[in-house]
Specification:
single chain, 827 residues, alpha+beta, nine-stranded mixed sheet, six-stranded mixed sheet, 40 strands, 18% helix, globular, DNA-binding
DNA sequence: GCTTAGGTTTTG
């Protein structure tokens, strides 16, 4: 009686096993343990087709999943009721006793779970069944049932790396004297017997804080960040998704598939995701998800109370009440724990420099050149600024000619670049799109009266830049369609003659910025930090006076340079008063590559004041990297307090290290000490900021001088202090801008030289922060609103000083703004 | 054939 089919006993969640048999945990299924008189219980989550081995032996493989408890179960799957059944067969003590030396598998219906509190990663094990037993088992096995296994033979699993299951498998065969008892789901009718083939497998979902390297898991998460699918440089589409769950752990997943439809259909941050069979790997010290064989996903709207309709490409998927409950719970959790942005930006609410996502309909498209492509889109609202029109050949423009003409005042041109071109080309006219991270760029306004907004979708995928096609079933699309149908085209055609301010009135869509500007009209948008008692001087008087002098003025900012604000950042040496451009990342990369040619000198490793770690990259270059962690009191500090030096690192590696450690100093080996790289490279990186030294005024010292700071009671690793001991004259980041000020009596150019006081933004941080760049642009838009007549510009109160600059050829008077800041309510 | 990308900068 090697395989016996049994029915469950009504109302009993435990199988009547011989008393000498004891339950074994999955974690104790290891070589060297005594498994006599032990049994293991698990769910059938997978079975493979019955096959024959080379010698003709039948072979059958099933996968059992260990019972486990995790937060989902904690919240709503427990307590579980005992399985219900009508048919019953009793296994007598004698029957069970008779198979003491046999392998026993008991298959019981329903779900019975252990309240095992661990969140172990490996939760499944392979069972290999040989011979007649394989054949018999294959006939009766059903997914979703619970197995109990006892008296088994253990062997190392050869498929551990691929399947991420238990390191051992269990072997069973009649020849070995095994026997199998099977308790199975009652099959009342012939119909249900057939249907039982599709019995739903029971999935276990791993919380994100319980993921382990090398496993394949199922999981739920809320989308915190995503890149819509884009064409990778390989053969597939790629999509990157960062999930979070109530464990508050993030998981970034890199998903590939040659079929666009097989990647998750995410439309918004806050969408809820269910992944099946995603592979977990460690990458850069963090867990990473990656597509594995059999990967499948479901995506749900993350709005609390919205209909729960999975978005998926699979025709077959499991989805039950349990899942519904999980989704709703994640929605509620996300609503109070995740910052999900407010209402979507419409074209009427676009603000220059503020990157935005646009839900729109494609009206026209055209090729522009090899690296850019034009999309003409509308969302039924009117952009309050004049927008640019990209010149294209009429024959290159695809779309309904009549509609393009009718909508000409409502469509905007979006120029997409590089990697987005291929996808853009394939878009169908009339389709609904969500374009992510569009850059509304102010065209350089040499002509002061008209300042245009250009819409760019730059190359690359940073910040989730990309294009997604929305189905007509999408709620946002439904809403947009209704709105588009209500737009009166006659109105929009009459608008051509109106100014943008009048248009705002017409559309009743005055942006916050606009009303804000009006408020600023009468009050000064800048304030003095001193000299309040002085009276104003007219610009004409100042222009007719000799320098040097100081004045208080009231004037309007007619224009400023540079218009590209990032160009206003320079590096200043306070010792020699020189100014220089901020080196770009490529320069640094080049210097790092050059320094990586020199291998780390092992004699300089592990000194009294730092510990060293070295390794060689596995790629062809065999690059040697050394990291020296500076100690304090002969101890390593916490990463966030640690200064480290790196040799042979790449730009990306250096960058990654700055995220974890307080200070990073790129160095290279000499014969007797480590030394700084060329001063065109930063001598120190802290957080987002790269600190540079003046080439002219610095006399770099060997880096062992740093040991004096390390020996301090509480090393603070201040950049100025580090610079000092290393013999570096540090350069400071400054804003240098030229303001053209007018007051009705005259116009003068005044320079702004500011570290951070004027804008309330540190110049050192602006290049690495999109947010701060946008903030600065908004400030400039308030000080000098684009597209305005002189009368409509706000007033600025400033303190300026005049000074002389003489050389052999000429003498000139210059003006500089100081003791002035942007008013708090403007920032 | 087994990569692609691996959230974090565009400056057109």
């Amino acid at each position: 009686m090697p395989v016996q089919l049994l029915k469950i006993i009504k109302g009993k969640s435990e199988i009547p096993l011989p008393s000498h048999l004891q339950k074994e945990d999955l974690k104790n299924l290891q070589e060297g343990f005594d498994h006599t008189n032990k049994y293991f219980q698990g769910l059938v989550i997978l079975s493979y087709p019955l096959t024959k081995l080379r010698d003709g032996t039948d072979f059958f493989k099933v996968v059992l999943q260990a019972p486990s408890l995790h937060w989902l179960e904690n919240q709503h799957l427990l307590p579980l009721s005992p399985p219900d059944s009508t048919n019953s067969v009793t296994v007598t003590e004698q029957q069970a006793e008779g198979c003491r030396s046999y392998l026993v598998i008991l298959l019981v219906t329903g779900v019975s779970r252990d309240l095992d509190n661990s969140c172990s990663q490996i939760n499944s094990i392979n069972i290999l069944i040989y011979g007649k037993m394989a054949e018999d088992c294959a006939k009766v096995i059903q997914h979703g049932d619970t197995f109990v296994v006892a008296g088994f033979k253990l062997a190392k699993s050869p498929t551990l790396r691929e399947d991420g299951r238990h390191g051992c498998h269990l072997e069973v065969s009649e020849e070995a004297g095994s026997a199998i008892y099977i308790y199975t789901i009652p099959r009342a009718t012939a119909a249900s017997e057939t249907a039982s083939v599709s019995v739903t497998p029971k999935y276990v979902y791993t919380p994100l804080n319980c993921l382990k390297d090398g496993t394949i898991v199922n999981l739920y998460g809320v989308v915190k960040f995503f890149k819509p699918p884009y064409v990778s440089k390989g053969t597939d589409y790629c999509s990157v998704v960062t999930l979070v769950d109530p464990s508050n752990v993030k998981l970034t997943c890199t998903l590939f598939n040659g079929n666009l439809d097989c990647l998750p259909k995410i439309y918004k941050v806050g969408d809820i995701i269910r992944f099946h069979r995603i592979k977990v790997r460690e990458y850069n010290g963090q867990m990473q998800g990656i597509t594995s064989v059999g990967f499948a996903s479901l995506t749900f709207d993350g709005t609390v109370g919205a209909p729960i309709v999975p978005r998926t490409s699979s025709k077959v998927y499991t989805f039950m009440d349990e899942e519904q409950k999980t989704i709703e719970e994640l929605r509620v959790w996300a609503a109070s724990n995740l910052s999900i942005s407010g209402p979507a930006v419409k074209l009427s609410g676009v603000q220059p420099m503020l990157f935005f996502d646009l839900t729109c309909q494609l009206v026209g498209k055209a090729k522009v050149d090899g690296s850019s492509f034009l999309l003409k889109v509308w969302d039924g609202t009117k952009c309050p600024y004049p927008t640019w029109k990209v010149p294209v050949e009429a024959r290159d423009l695809e779309g309904e000619k009549i509609l393009l003409h009718q909508l000409r005042n409502l469509t905007v041109d979006i120029l997409v670049y590089d990697n987005h071109v291929q996808l853009a080309k394939s878009l169908k006219i009339g389709s609904f799109l969500r374009i992510y991270s569009i850059h509304p760029k102010q065209a350089s306004a040499d002509n002061e009266d008209v300042s245009q907004i250009e819409f760019h979708l730059h190359g690359g995928t940073c910040y989730g830049r990309g294009i997604g096609v929305l189905p007509e079933s999408n709620p946002d699309v439904k809403e947009l369609k209704t709105f588009l149908e209500s737009v009166d085209l006659a109105d929009s055609q009459n608008m051509e003659s109106m100014s943008s301010v009048e248009l705002d009135g017409t559309f009743n869509s005055v942006t916050d910025l606009e009303s804000h500007l009006r408020r600023c009209q009468h009050f000064s948008v800048t304030v003095l930090t001193d000299h309040q008692d002085l009276n104003n001087t007219e610009l004409k008087t100042i222009l007719n006076s000799t320098a040097p002098q100081q004045y208080r003025i009231r004037a309007k900012l007619r224009t400023y340079k540079p218009q590209k604000l990032y160009q206003s950042i320079k590096l200043h040496c306070s010792k020699c008063n020189s100014l220089q451009e901020v080196p770009d990342g490529d320069d640094f990369d080049f210097i790092l590559q050059g320094s990586a040619v020199t291998a780390p000198n092992p004699e300089l490793h592990n000194t009294s004041w730092y510990d060293s770690v070295t390794w060689t990259t596995q790629d062809q270059k065999q690059r040697k990297i050394a990291i020296h962690f500076v100690k304090h009191d002969e101890m390593l500090q916490q990463p966030e307090d640690t200064l480290l030096m790196i040799e042979g690192g790449t730009l990306k590696e250096v960058w990654k290290l700055t995220k974890r450690f307080k200070c990073v100093i790129p160095v290279r080996s000499t014969e007797d000490d480590l030394e700084l790289l060329d001063l065109s490279a930063p001598f120190l990186l802290q957080g987002n900021i790269k600190y540079y030294g003046c080439k002219q005024c610095s006399t770099p010292k060997p880096v062992k001088s740093l040991s004096s700071i390390a020996a301090e009671q509480r090393p603070s690793w201040e950049p100025t202090e580090i610079a000092q001991v290393l013999g570096i004259e540090p350069l400071q980041y400054v804003f240098i801008m030229k303001f053209t000020l007018v007051d009705g009596t005259g116009a003068l150019n005044a320079y702004l030289f500011d570290y951070e006081k004027f804008f309330h933004i540190p110049a050192s941080e602006i290049l690495t922060s999109n947010f701060l760049q946008q903030k600065m642009q908004m400030t400039m838009n308030t000080l000098c609103p684009p597209g305005r007549k002189l009368d409509d510009l706000p007033w600025l109160e400033c303190f300026i000083k005049s000074y002389n600059v003489r050389d052999e050829m000429k003498h000139q008077v210059y003006y500089q703004i100081f003791d002035t800041t942007v008013a708090e309510d403007v920032v």
